Sequence to fold (367 residues):
Amino acid sequence: MLKIMKNRFRLIVYRSLGGMIYLHDKETGLRVSLETKDMARAVEFLVAKNEAAREPAFNLQKARVYMAASDPGVATRTWGDALGKLTTSKPEGSENRARLERFSKEKALAPILKVVLLETRSDQVLEVLKAGRVSTNTFLRRLQNFCVGMNWLPWPILPAKLWPRIRYKKKRAIKYEEHLKIIARELNLERRAFYELCWHLGGSQSDVANLEAEDVDWTDNTVCYERRKLGGLDDTDIKPPIIKIGKRCAAILRSLPQSGPLFPNLKKVKAKDRANEFRQRCQGLGIKGVSLHSYRYSWAERARKAGYPLRQAEEALGHNCKAVHWAYAKRAQVTVDSLEDYEETAAKKLGSAESAGTNSPLPVARP
Fold:
């Protein structure tokens, strides 16, 4: 049932102010003095204000009529309803679903949850973004795109260019010295091995915590696992990488169960609880600015410093985009060798080949 349009403004006469007439806005609750006591002039101004406000409301009413023909819930669907649908669209027990459930409890989001989608103003969205955090910006943007994609919104409430830029906190890698302090302080053998594998494999905490003994192939000394982040994607082109394991990594894996989960206890712990435990240990050691995710930064920076092939690094980290890998490794300090030295070395090799008098001629570069 569609709502009947009502006047937005009305008049209020203050007898205590000698009969001064004020204009009251029902939507915002603001009252503005008309600077007059003449009721006839005040009524003229009231009619003009209501007519000006009625035109956009009438257009919105027409839009509701057209959209209600194919979607009966268009007049009552709120942001809370849309968020519930988006949440249940994610696999049960997945990290994405858990994040959306946490997002629905944010205080900054509360004022907009009961607002009907088609009645939402852009300034309401901006107020939520202003009061919220980085996650508010990220998930509210995702929620708006979901509503547009479901045809619950004819167009975005807030255009893409007007969304505040997402500014993440500065992240850094865990230094080797810090890693040694962490594992030296850790008395729990399972958790210590967990931190060690995060260092050697560069996997996310959920991926490493859910490793199985069957993921390790001792014949080829490799480990292969699918990223939980991509577990819901039915794409045959996305295949997990096969990662060679070194001697230190192999020694850690040998010390863990040889069947079933490698970390049977940590596997049952929620990701946020594992992160809190790690943060507490770092605080006790005076290590600041790192999290469990920082082990991925460490792996990428070490790979870049060692001259590890970029393509293999992308495969190991589970990303296909070069920009993502460089984002992980942007803090790595790499010394670039002199081109002059390379040229001199190449010239010496060329001279040695000519003086050797080999029968086979040197290959000539073709344009």
The chain has three domains: 9-72, 76-162, 176-329. The first strand starts at residue 9 and ends at 14. Confidence is low (pLDDT under 50) at residues 360-367. Residues 112 and 142 are 15 Å apart (CA to CA).
